Amino acid sequence: MTHHDDAVAAFTQLLGANGVITAAADQERYVRDWAGARLGMPLAVVRPRTTEEVAAVVGYCHRNGICMVAQGGHTGLVKGALPDSRTPEVVISLERMTRIRGLDPLNFSMAVDGGCILEEVKRAAEEADCFFPLSLGAQGSCQIGGNIATNAGGVNVLRYGMMRELVLGLEVVLPDGEIWSGMKALHKDNRGYDLKQLFLGSEGTLGIVTGAVLKLTPRPEQSQTALLAVPSVEAAVRLYALTRRRCSDLLSAFELMPRLCLELAFEAAPQLADPFDEAYPYHVLLELTATGPVDLSGLLEGLLEAGMEHEVVLDGVLASSVAQAGQLWAIRESMVEGQLLRGEHLRTDVSVPISSIAECVEQATAEVAALSPTSQVIAYGHIGDGNLHINVLPPAETPAEALPALFERLERAIFTVVDGFDGSISAEHGIGRSKQAAFLDRLTVTERRLLAGIKAVFDPDDLMGAGRIQPASERSSS
Amino acid sequence: MTHHDDAVAAFTQLLGANGVITAAADQERYVRDWAGARLGMPLAVVRPRTTEEVAAVVGYCHRNGICMVAQGGHTGLVKGALPDSRTPEVVISLERMTRIRGLDPLNFSMAVDGGCILEEVKRAAEEADCFFPLSLGAQGSCQIGGNIATNAGGVNVLRYGMMRELVLGLEVVLPDGEIWSGMKALHKDNRGYDLKQLFLGSEGTLGIVTGAVLKLTPRPEQSQTALLAVPSVEAAVRLYALTRRRCSDLLSAFELMPRLCLELAFEAAPQLADPFDEAYPYHVLLELTATGPVDLSGLLEGLLEAGMEHEVVLDGVLASSVAQAGQLWAIRESMVEGQLLRGEHLRTDVSVPISSIAECVEQATAEVAALSPTSQVIAYGHIGDGNLHINVLPPAETPAEALPALFERLERAIFTVVDGFDGSISAEHGIGRSKQAAFLDRLTVTERRLLAGIKAVFDPDDLMGAGRIQPASERSSS
């Protein structure tokens, strides 16, 4: 028996035959991510049902020097969860760990397994008249453990924060197989270094999140959604400040979309109607939500008036029903699909100070135009977070083999613009493998030393998530 | 010249004579904290004016194996900033680093020096029609760098989070004297391990915070303050849930105070009038704030009605002016002074799930009564954070020399009760030296290894803040 056969036999003994997948055909859905990317084939895919089973598998890998990667819903966009192409890894899928462990409405908290699908978490919260705020396009398939490992963002960050601000407690299987139990349901706990914060955003390189205590809010009882036409990006930024100042902390989403976004949405979903008679250059999709007797529609109408008076709003559609609000959100969501329909394109996920958004978009657009005059820039995103997806649709006639080099040049140019505003080259997607070179390029020697040092404290043999965020250690091939 | 004389000469050369204090009399205010505690005398007190000067001092200490401790406003309550009594430390005071570096109202952010007094930060924000939410009793003297190092809390945490959630960027002098510049003004930045999170709450053991970019909100334009009488702690908890559900996210503070709190406040500030005709068992001081045209007084009146209907409110005083609101807050603040006037007493700072608060107070009160029947328990705090200060006023006749042993027994009993609810023995004050034994007792071997490992990555020689949070390394006396 080879080393690998031994491992498969051990996993089968630990998890049962049903818990281990070795046939290449059955592994297919574990080796390809949402965007269609794939790298290598795993040593095996294992599907533990409990934290103890995760710990047993990880412990075995640790003792035997086997590399491993945790896998959630496979909706990440930086190739972090894909099994490696050089060193065979064990894929540890959390898909069978989907229990809601408990919900405490008086404490506004719920405890869940790491494999729970985000949408199920949100539904369970709603059934208890509560609300779990994390909202993103992939919520029907992403897992909460993955959301935690990648510190997920989405459309409600401006009000509720990223995943980091929505976690009260964590349970993590460490790279040596020990279970770290930090499942406290406390809103305040200030004891020394907060290990929880390190696991959040570590992309599975310091441990595997098997459970979490999440922070809930009361379920919003009313919401107001509007799609506003604005003359420029700069006007959208000024409208954001106005909205914050007029609507207290009741603003939940504030999404910028240029005209091209609407057109892409209509291409992907022809049943959607254009809510405007005119083609305006930019739009803002905003949502106010509240619990209790707040006059939300009055607030929104007042905002619209003030926006027109300040000449930052040209026109607007206020949703008069939940269905109509859904139609407006469908534009935002279909637009992502519309980009895919146009074929391969460059996606970025950058952030700058909110006050620099307009200038950043302008400069990035100019840089792209200089490099590739017939490419189309589509800059949309979360104004309240300073987070833009400055994407580029290449000219239709570009040969497929020329795309990678073109995208690399364009990405480099956009990142240089972002550097000029002291921005970030990864605002919410994380680093994984895709952003690693750009990430490392921007670190000092000291920063690299600190990151490597932290990794070594948790995983001295570099067996867990090796090669994500930081380069993998040199090792002899197995 | 001794090793110490050399150091003083070097510091004088780096900072000028004005920047170094060696006379014991002049050092007095750097060796005694707000609560009057003192431990040892420092090797010297240094007062750098810039980040570069901090780096130069730290670099010298690093090269010469000299211990150092950063010092802010000296308002911490866990003896973290006091110079050590065994190994002479250099006290690095940030008191001359008080620049507001810049404020960006469109980005809702401001950059400040680490030595800025919290109240000055709040004032500067207000001058730009913005708001920095951190609010605590010591805000007139605590420094923002200290607030960051200790991840400070206060009365507005339920709405705005602890210091951790109010920091966008940091500048830190590392224990080897290198300057780590993470002064980005980004609301979203998701690049690998977030070093910033490690410095937050590390109590000066991983680096010295010399600058920060803080997150602002729009300045509240209106507020409503009320002091409500409630029949029990359990009713206060139910009232909290009701308030969250009726007042959207406009609730800024929700403070529990038993009757004894009011009496202590009136002892400390006899000019304060008792707003009630009757002596009720418990009170809630709550505040709603908003920007924009929200009918806040309508919300509060509705809440009061609903509270009475649900029998969780017995009586209430709504402040009809800013001055009257100030009077109600003065009760909350004078109560702390009132405890001091009663002499030495046991202070704790614990948290439990909000839903366990009532039972926790009941059990803790019973435990104290069993150990010391004539002691008075005073349990007050931040309901929305599950954070209670369960303090104990000992019998007046207790001899001073008997107090430490009594407090130790009582604290141990209260902490055991808190453990029963899977709570925290330090919700907001941190660990420092005072909480270290109780903190370490509750860690697993793995947790101790991880914390020591992290410290060693940043400060392998254990020269910075040694002995805070974790025990100091063994070293030969200098």
UniProtKB/TrEMBL annotation, chains A, B:
Pfam families hit by this protein: FAD-oxidase_C, FAD_binding_4
Record keyword Cytoplasm present: no
InterPro entries, sorted: FAD-bd_oxidored_4_C, FAD-bd_PCMH, FAD-bd_PCMH-like_sf, FAD-bd_PCMH_sub1, FAD-bd_PCMH_sub2, FAD-linked_Oxase-like_C, FAD-oxidored/transferase_4, Oxid_FAD_bind_N
Domain FAD-binding PCMH-type: 38-219
Keywords of this entry: FAD, Flavoprotein
PANTHER family assigned: BLL6224 PROTEIN, D-2-HYDROXYGLUTARATE DEHYDROGENASE, MITOCHONDRIAL
Protein name from the UniProt record: FAD-binding oxidoreductase
Organism of origin: Billgrantia ethanolica
